[in-house]
Design goal:
Blueprint lengths: L9 H15 L8 E6 L2 E7 L4 E5 L6 H9 L3 E5 L5 H15 L5
Parallel strand pairs: 3-4
Antiparallel strand pairs: 1-2, 2-3
Length: 104
């Protein structure tokens, strides 16, 4: 294994921690994917059955991307990187539970 010269940047660390928590939701029947594409746009974390995209708000939003996702039925949850991860996961779980009856 190659040792890193520098630690991961805080943004990458926050995404890695979120990814581990979202993957753990597979025990409850949800299957998040990381870095999947929707048309030409990369989605950080997506659960296709629930039509849900989860991402950190980095201040760069694409109106076209958001509109295309909405037209396809997807909802986007944006969180600040400094929000407690437990609160983020609790909110994501609540949204998923609301959508459980609408799964494809």
């Amino acid at each position: 294994m190659i040792a890193r010269k520098k630690p991961l940047r805080p943004a990458a660390d926050a995404e890695a921690r979120l990814w581990l928590k979202l993957r753990a939701l597979s025990e409850q029947g949800w299957h998040f994917r990381r870095g999947r594409y929707f048309r030409t746009f990369r989605l950080p974390f997506v659960e296709h059955d629930a039509l849900l995209v989860v991402e950190f708000d980095d201040g760069r939003r694409s109106i076209v991307r958001d509109r295309l996702l909405a037209e396809a039925g997807y909802s986007v949850l944006r969180f600040r990187r400094d929000e407690p991860l437990s609160a983020v996961i609790a909110f994501v779980r609540a949204v998923l539970e609301d959508r459980r009856d609408y799964r494809i």
